[in-house]
């Protein structure tokens, strides 16, 4: 007995289904854009809102670039930008990928009883946000820009470390509360 996939009708059905699915996805991507949205989505690959968002992002980036050039710090900015990209790709990415693999390893091999939600995202998100804040504000948090900051603003950088620590604690507390709520909801009967 032949399987359905081996029959000619099965192949035709699959081809028609794939074409219909692609056409439907094109229509979905262009919904709300008026006449010809399916053609737009087929040619561009996404809806007009996506293009508008990209244009806005490029406009903001272009404005920032003009401000950097006007300030006369474009060479330092270019060195910082390339250095940050290289540092991220060669140092930070392997570090946090390895840390994430270690964090996910215990839950990979055992089943969570009672449909408990995984803990990994409730640790991953606050750590990522805290590290991002530290990465952006590290000269002020670690008091490396004290002289320049006092000269420019007239204030000390001493409160930044405490504020960053408090924000980190708050992120972990909110994440722990969300985890507790999700775990309790998963333990209820009827779920």
Keywords summarizing the entry:
single chain, 191 residues, mainly alpha, 7 helices, 0% strand, flat
Textual characterization of the structure:
The chain has 191 residues and is mostly helical. 78% of the residues lie in helices and 0% in strands. It has helices at residues 8-29, 37-44, 48-71, 74-108, 120-141, 146-153, 158-187. The longest helix has 35 residues, at 74-108. It is flat. The relative contact order is 0.05. The mean pLDDT is 80.
Rg over CA atoms: 26 Å
> How many helices in DSSP terms?
7
Uncertain residue segments: none
Sketch the topology as an H/E string, one letter per element. Answer: HHHHHHH
The number of distinct β-strands equals 0
* Proportion of strand residues: under 5%
Largest sheet: none
Shape: flat
| Mean pLDDT over all positions | 80
Q: What structural category do the secondary elements indicate?
A: mainly alpha
Task: Write a short abstract of this structure.
The chain is mainly α. It has 7 helices and no strands.
Draw up the topology in text.
Elements: H1 8-29, H2 37-44, H3 48-71, H4 74-108, H5 120-141, H6 146-153, H7 158-187
Helix pairs in contact: 1-2, 5-7
């Amino acid at each position: 007995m032949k399987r359905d996939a081996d029959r000619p009708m099965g192949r035709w059905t699959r081809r028609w289904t794939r074409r219909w699915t692609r056409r439907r996805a094109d229509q979905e991507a262009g919904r709300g854009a008026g006449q010809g949205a399916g053609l737009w989505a087929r040619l561009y690959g996404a809806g007009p809102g996506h293009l508008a968002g990209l244009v806005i992002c490029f406009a903001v980036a272009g404005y920032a670039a003009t401000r950097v050039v006007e300030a006369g710090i474009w060479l330092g900015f270019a060195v910082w930008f390339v250095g940050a990209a290289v540092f991220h790709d060669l140092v930070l990415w392997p570090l946090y990928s390895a840390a994430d693999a270690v964090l996910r390893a215990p839950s990979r091999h055992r089943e969570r009883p009672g449909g408990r939600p995984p803990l990994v995202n409730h640790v991953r998100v606050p750590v990522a946000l805290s590290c991002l804040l530290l990465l952006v504000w590290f000269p002020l948090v670690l008091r490396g820009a004290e002289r320049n900051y006092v000269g420019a603003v007239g204030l000390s950088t001493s409160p930044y470390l405490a504020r960053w620590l408090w924000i980190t604690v708050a992120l972990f507390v909110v994440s722990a509360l969300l985890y507790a709520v999700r775990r309790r909801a998963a333990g209820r009967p009827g779920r």
